[in-house]
Write a structure and sequence with these properties.
The protein is mainly alpha-helical. 46% of the residues lie in helices and 5% in strands.
Length: 166
């Protein structure tokens, strides 16, 4: 008698013995499309990033560089929030200085200013948010960490510069 029996967790066994409730381990094979998630690296973006993810760091010391995670630590969140706040401050102070007769020297920001105040703030926030999302997802890559540090220092210095103009 050879007939497949669907068992627990999608395990199938061929019955070539007398006891159908305890098939030999060598006969068990996995069926279906489900695979063990541990055999694949964590993807760049996953639904677990939105909530419920558990992997915040690489599991082994040598895996940190170039690995992706599905949950982010509080310090990464605060770091990104700081850069976003500095971006908002830069937008605000740029508009204040332009109303006082200043001139925008950044050609990209000058082009965005042609869309109006709302368009400028919206476009600047969208571009910087997209860049921050990419840097956050790639936080375990050295170039992304350098990008986060450079953006943090640059935006903080820019806001301090804006404050010194008053």
């Amino acid at each position: 008698m050879v007939a497949p029996i669907n068992g627990w967790m999608g395990v199938t066994s061929s019955l070539t013995h007398s006891n159908p409730f305890n098939p030999p381990m060598a006969d068990r094979t996995f069926v279906g499309t489900r695979t063990d998630r541990r055999h694949q690296p964590t993807p760049r973006l996953s639904l677990y990033s939105l909530g419920g993810g558990r992997r915040r760091n690489a599991q082994r010391l040598g895996e940190r560089e170039g690995s992706f995670v599905d949950a982010y630590s509080a310090w990464v969140f605060l770091w990104i929030l700081w850069v976003a706040a500095m971006n908002v401050g830069d937008s605000f102070f740029t508009l204040v200085h332009l109303q006082a007769g200043g001139v925008e020297v950044n050609p990209v920001a000058a082009a965005m200013l042609k869309t109006g105040r709302f368009g400028f703030v919206f476009l600047k926030a969208a571009v910087i948010s997209a860049a921050l999302l990419v840097l956050t997802v790639h936080k375990n890559f050295s170039m992304a960490r350098i990008g986060l540090w450079v953006s943090t220092i640059a935006y903080t210095a820019l806001v301090i510069y804006h404050l010194t103009l008053f």
